[in-house]
Amino acid sequence: MARSEKQKMLAGELYHAGDAELQADQAAAKAWMARFNAASTLPAAERRALLRECFAAVGDGAVIRPPFHCDYGYNIRLGADVFLNYNCVILDVVEVVIGDGTQVGPAVQIYTADHPRDPQQRCSGAEFGRPVRIGRNVWIGGGAILLPGITVGDDALIGAGSVVTRDVPAGATVVGNPARAIG
What we know:
Layout: H1 5-10, E1 15-16, H2 20-37, H3 44-54, E2 57-58, E3 63-64, E4 68-70, E5 76-78, E6 83-84, E7 88-91, E8 96-98, E9 103-104, E10 109-111, E11 113-114, H4 119-123, E12 126-129, E13 132-134, E14 139-140, E15 145-146, E16 151-152, E17 157-158, E18 163-164, E19 173-175, E20 180-181
Helix pairs in contact: 2-3
């Protein structure tokens, strides 16, 4: 039996995002985001309940300040006491895991969506995803961008405005474009 485009997407294989099932999932995520982003005056516990409607996992004490944007939501896992500040974007075509106690500054962008390097494959409209995993007690400064396939170790620090193109070891501090370890 042929695999659906959604099954291919979730497996990190080439897929076509224009598929009807994926478009319906994105429409549902957009409707959810409209509700979540309009709920900025609700208590944190009620906003967390909204997150649990859409995300794969939401730990106790997790907070996202609206506005927030994602592709699907169902591939996002937040640990306990995770904090995402205003205007964060997560392109979650595959899993994004954010560990306990991690703090994410405003306007941070986390991308799992990727595209073939071969121009003919890219022309076909096919794309794929690579998971992003962020450890515990990480601090990600405002405006940072994490590219597909990145793993960030526990206790790491990513400077504001950094573009993370490679894995960040536990306890490391990285800054710049591309982000490089300092100190």
